[in-house]
Design brief:
Blueprint: H1 31-38, H2 45-52, H3 64-76, H4 82-91, H5 93-99, H6 106-115, H7 117-121, H8 123-133, E1 141-150, E2 158-160, H9 161-193, H10 204-255, H11 260-298, E3 331-333, E4 340-344, E5 347-359, E6 365-371, H12 380-391, E7 397-400, H13 407-415, E8 419-422, H14 446-455, H15 457-464, H16 466-480, H17 491-525
Helix pairs in contact: 1-5, 3-17, 4-5, 4-6, 8-17, 9-10, 10-11
């Protein structure tokens, strides 16, 4: 008779199953130990000093360095919900080692993230510099792209300007009817019980409608303020273009050796351009005044009326009429007013446009940003400026898809010493254009020169690498780590959250790179 099969001992009631030292609980090259070693490398003063300045009385709080590493590791592995992080501190061995077997509750984790979001965002550059020091970033070739991420809001919680006006009118009508009913009820009760004896309190239905009317009214005024600001920015651009055209005509006339007839024609043309520039400036000033007035009515600051730094992300250009008022279909979301309707893979969602510049060597993100402006074209210059600022280097080559093409963007790259490879149009999938040979004709415009540049052998090879550089980063973040939608609301907070995702992407890359280096060194010496 065969002996029955035996198994490994299983004694869940045994009091000691783990080694005495937490350093032995995980493998030596575990990411947790890598993060713990970063405590002495990263500058966490912006997080630690405010925490130390709090009232020392009462219960002792958790070490802010531990909470910082806890959040970083949680984002590294895609566990970003504060409740899931709290549960992991009880159930996940790596989390327990990282926290020293402490279990902060979800409210403290959430509050720590909210309070220190700006300081956590600043870690992006610190981690990027560590990647540079490790030799992971050369900036020989960077790729720019954007991805749409859903906001913490539903598109069904948005309302168009036309619907707002109708809803306000309807609610005002209902409120008047409820007030008349309340007056009749009060009169009946006064006759029955005596004046002032009982009386009717404000009906709940009336209060609910008044609250909703106030909310819609605030949203409508904010929407009108934002479209007025968008119109003012458009008018300012038109005025600047008219001034530039006039200056160019004056300069050309000054350098020209014309006959009397030609000079008279030039003077007439200049006068037309001057009049056009004056009118454009007057319209821009009027639009600016209207935008300030609308912002004051809404209790908001006017958006983008003053010159913005080169690395500032663009403001969304909501659809508006010539007078700055919203069109009938222009919308505003009640849950997250900063979010916008965007298209992603054929779907329409309430979200944000998230931008990233990625270095080709090891897919390290070198610049990030979020805007609520769906088109990509306005993001190239700010993202290029952020790349240069973050790395203190100018990239050699930049690739971007057709959504970023404009003559101004190509010129901006060349002015900064960057070789741009920007697609000028979309091609059918799997049908690349035939290659061309020979020099690029000098009489082509900027778009024609770029199109020819990308069809030459070298240009085709460079541009073909774009997808393998930047698109896997979005796949690793959204599919691998689970970024389906943002947890926070509002453009500023969403930008901080996007930077946190990028910081931990680079942390993952750095950890794996150093781990591979150690393995190679061990193999070489062994």
């Amino acid at each position: 008779m065969h002996k029955p099969k035996t198994f490994r001992p299983w004694q869940p009631g045994q009091t000691s199953l783990l080694p005495p030292s937490p350093r032995e609980w995980l493998s030596e090259d575990h990411q947790v130990y890598f993060l713990l070693d970063l405590v002495d490398v990263l500058d966490l003063s912006a997080i630690v000093i405010p925490a130390q300045a709090k009232d020392p009385r009462g219960e002792k709080g958790f070490d802010p360095r531990m909470l910082t590493l806890l959040l970083l590791y949680a984002y590294c592995v895609g566990t970003v919900s504060s409740r899931k992080i709290e549960r992991a501190c009880y159930e996940d061995l790596a989390f327990r080692v990282l926290t020293g077997n402490q279990q902060p509750d979800h409210s403290r984790i959430s509050e720590f993230r909210r309070r220190n979001l700006e300081a956590l965002s600043e870690l992006f550059v610190q981690i990027l510099r560590l990647c540079q020091e490790a030799g992971m970033v050369s900036l020989g070739h960077v790729a720019l792209d954007g991805t749409k991420v859903q906001a913490n809001a539903s598109k069904h919680k948005a309302m168009s300007h036309e619907r707002m006006l109708k809803a306000e009118a309807q609610l005002e009508k209902e409120i008047r009817e409820l007030l008349r009913k309340a007056e009749i009820l009060d009169a009946q009760e006064d006759g029955k019980y005596g004046k002032g004896k009982l009386g009717s309190d404000l009906p709940k239905e009336l209060q609910r409608r008044q609250d909703r009317l106030e909310a819609i009214s605030r949203a409508r005024k904010a929407l009108e303020a934002e479209t007025a600001a968008a119109a003012a920015r458009d008018r300012a651009k038109q005025a600047a273009a008219a001034e530039a055209a006039l200056a160019e005509a004056v300069a050309a006339n000054t350098n020209a050796d014309d006959t009397d007839a030609d000079a008279a024609a030039d003077a007439s043309e200049q006068q037309k351009l001057r009049e056009k520039a004056v009118k454009a400036k007057e319209k821009a000033e009027a639009a600016r005044e209207l935008a300030i007035e609308r912002a004051n009515e809404a209790g908001l600051e006017p958006q983008g009326l003053d010159p913005q730094p080169a690395d500032a992300m663009p403001y969304r250009g909501l659809a508006h009429r010539a007078d700055g008022s919203p069109t009938a279909k222009t919308q505003r979301n009640f849950t997250d007013p900063d979010s916008h309707i965007v298209k992603s893979d054929g779907n329409v969602l309430q979200g944000y446009n998230c931008q990233a510049v990625v270095d080709a060597d090891h897919q390290v993100i070198v610049a990030m940003g979020v805007s609520n402006q769906p088109p990509d074209v306005e993001h190239l210059v700010p993202m290029l400026e952020r790349t240069i600022t973050n790395t203190s280097q100018v990239p050699k080559t930049l690739t971007a898809d057709a959504g970023y093409w404009s003559e101004d963007n190509a010129a901006a790259c060349e002015q900064r010493g960057v070789d741009p490879h920007i697609a000028t149009g979309r091609l059918p999938h799997g049908q690349p254009p035939p290659p061309i040979f020979g020099p690029i004709p000098k009489d082509l415009d900027a778009k024609g020169r770029m199109a020819r540049k990308l069809r030459k052998k070298e240009g085709r090879e460079i541009y073909a690498k774009r997808k393998t550089i930047v698109e896997p980063v979005f796949g690793q973040t959204k599919e691998g780590r689970g970024l389906r939608r943002f947890l926070l609301r509002g453009l500023e907070k969403v930008n901080g959250e996007w930077l946190l995702w990028g910081t931990t992407h680079n942390l993952n890359k750095l950890w794996r790179f150093l781990k591979q280096q150690r393995l190679q060194q061990a193999m070489a010496t062994g």
